[in-house]
């Protein structure tokens, strides 16, 4: 029903798959923040949120532009604001909104702040989100770490699809193994494989629609 996420920016190539949406709101009332916390809202609150966002984003182009004369920020992420008012998901891409709020239509900032407040509420009041499906990202390390631990047995490595990195979705037992043996603290963890290679791993839970 609604979504708020950031894409692009300084995120290293290939690591985008494990950067979760900031917030996703589903029609049944389930709200998930950062693929880490969940809260269920009553239908009336979901309806009010969608109505407000529909109003905020009404008339906005698919990609918003700041006021003329605004300096472009190439390494900042693009904010994506989405709402489904009944005729399909409508998304508005807002380049470097977080760094140029005053240069954009105030309605876009209002929509972002509306979703940000809800995300904070979900993180503060909701319970931990988990599922039996995860996305694992791996990258070969060019600077081996002396403190690297052996790769835990049973943890799979995704195929290298982008040079020396790759990601893959896992479910069931493999997903549980990853969640149990690889810390899920937002950091990147370096491991040593049986062949002596050093790999950097990170993972996140998949969302219901993924």
Shape: globular
Q: Roughly what percent helix?
A: 10-25%
Structural class: alpha+beta
Number of domains: 2
What's the main sheet like?
Answer: 7 strands, antiparallel
Mean pLDDT: 93
Low-confidence stretches: none
- Give the percentage of residues in beta strands: 25-35%
Q: Numbering strands along the chain, what is their spatial order in the largest sheet?
A: 6-5-1-2-3-4-7
Counting DSSP E segments of at least 2 residues, the number of strands comes to: 12
Run of helices and strands = EEEEHEEHEEEEHEE
Could you give the distance between the termini?
Answer: 15 Å
Figure out the total of helices: 3
Q: Please give the radius of gyration in angstroms.
A: 19 Å
Walkthrough of the structure:
The chain is α+β, with helices and mostly antiparallel strands and 210 residues long. The protein folds into 2 domains: 2-128, no CATH class; 133-205, no CATH class. It has helices spanning 43-57, 106-125, 173-181, and strands at residues 2-7, 23-25, 30-33, 37-40, 78-84, 89-95, 127-128, 133-140, 149-150, 165-171, 189-192, 198-205. The strands form 2 sheets. It has a 7-stranded antiparallel sheet with strand order 6-5-1-2-3-4-7, with helices on one face. The protein has a 5-stranded mixed sheet with strand order 9-11-12-8-10. 29% of the residues are buried. Residues 141-171 are annotated as: Disordered.
